[in-house]
Description:
- The chain is an alpha+beta fold.
- It is 31% helix and 20% strand.
- A 10-stranded mixed sheet has the order 3-2-1-4-5-7-6-8-10-9, with helices on both faces. A 6-stranded mixed sheet has the order 15-14-13-17-16-27. Strands 12-28-24-26 form a 4-stranded antiparallel sheet.
- Helix 8 (169-180) runs parallel beside helix 10 (202-211), helix 15 packs across helix 18 and helix 16 (524-533) runs parallel beside helix 20 (600-617).
- The longest helix is centred in the C-terminal third of the chain and has 18 residues, at 600-617.
- Residues 1-8 have low confidence and may be disordered.
Amino acid sequence: MRSISLKMEQADRQKLLGQYFSGKRIAEALFDLLGKPTGKTVIDPMCGQADLLVPFQKQNNIKGIELDKEAFTKAILFVKKSSIINGNAFDEKTLCKLAVNGYDIVITNPPFIRRENYKKAIDMIDGSLPIDDICRNLGSFTKKTETLNKEQKDKICAYLNSVSGLTDIASFSIILCMVLTRMEGHLALVVPDTWIGREYSAPVVGILKELFKIECIVNDINSVWFEGIAQVKTSLVIAKRTDVSKAQNNITIIDAFKGSLSKDSIFSFLCKDQSIGDFVKTQPMGIPGICEIQRISQNDFAIKSGIDVTSKLKVFCTGTSRFANLESYGISCGQGFRSGANACFVFDRNGNENISKVGSINSETLRDYFIPVIQNQKVLGDTYSINSDENLSALLCINNRYACSSDICTIDSPLRESYIPVPHALEEYLSKAELYEVKGTPVPEMSAVKTNARRKDNDVRFWYHFPDFTHRHRGLIFIPRVNGSAIIARLNPNKYVVDANFITFWNTKSDDFSEWLLAFLNSTWFSIMCEESGIVMGGGALKLDAVQLKKIPIPVLDKKDLKRLSTLGNKLKLCKIEKSDSIISKIDKVIFGKIGANDKVSLQKIKQIRNEYIARRL
């Protein structure tokens, strides 16, 4: 999509463009999932290098749109130049060239651009449009299209008139794709698995469910389809535009594991000339650990409350099982403290010296300028509670009324007199840090550091002054964001600062929750929920997101349950991790008892599910 300054680094350029090109394997997989069609009209409104159009071009009438001049130039090497429009798919000039009666197949891997990056893109990339213009142009085109009735048009326009501030460009791209799909036509999408579950995408998923029969979803369980490009768990979605009110629809969910991937195909398990459709018919359950298949009702797809219908724990739940979430118990969670430049602010402690990548500082004479920080998993020890700062790193934390002499000179009187110069040794270190570069950027100019500086009324701060710490920075319980094996939650009773490498949990009103929550977060229930909602990274590590954890269902717990869990959590914090199995088993019995699955056989099966999830990603 777009022409861009030559000075911009390729990685930054791709972020602003949201470019993650699909490649031949995904293109061939979608072609197969669509039944290798012929004689159809096919369009990709955000076609990139035209990867997805290549398999269709021989026996179909294809069209593509691409804003980026560089990608457009590559696209016309693979498909006919006359088939590709170099322009913005949301521009009025481009939309007027599209068929108002729609297309038989609409296929795309939409650009995924963070909202903050899109603001930069508007200024830096030729042809980019503000969100308001996109909504207005897309709304006007929707009203003209012949693929929708008035009620459907009104619903889409209402959405476009009230989009969330968090909505990404992919959501608008998918709306356009749905509008372009004619009745009995097909929609084929490449989307991150997490996009389907985002709050801001819920209205778009809702429209998809109302207009389309979702036929199939293929999940990249081990995040290997874009390996080396992006560590993202991806899904392929195939849906048919039809009257969904006429019949109950079941969606075929195909979980493709790493073993299903080869150099040439994401379906390497298929026999020669066998289609994925034929495979599903002959092996309706798939191949364990390679390609596992299940079916769910479309009505249950992407439901926001209760346990996800695709969860392996669903079979243990009864019709009367009730669920809550962390917020229901007054618990909040979020990412820990981000210094913006750990190379400058985080120190290893070595006797009387604190050492960072920038340099060293005498920890005895400058001890008042450091506080403990939980920054590295390797030093957390073998217990469930961090009771001492002995092995922790040190965080350089300068009170905002202390500053370098050279900076104090820049403050107007009489405010200047209220500032105290930092010791000479610390000023020397900060002067050195000002020149230290991380990936070519000086520390004070790094995106999360330069925002520390401010001059407002009587509050003057410099790049080395952190904002005030909040509850999430000193959470009473924390878990790693990236987990190599089993997830372990630990207590932070002294409320040390917790680095952004971790997710923290807190309650603004009371700390009484800590023991029962420590027990729950170390339960097999929570472990399985994290395995099912997290993202598997390269090497098999599991990456967790606070947004996803907030949605994890918790069987409704009464006061008696919370008291029992608190007792077990209290025992857990005094226990070594390697000797905690019996306590975890008792915790599981309380939690799974709420859904009627606390018998010995069920608990054994549940632990096996957890172990299989971990083994598959490792």
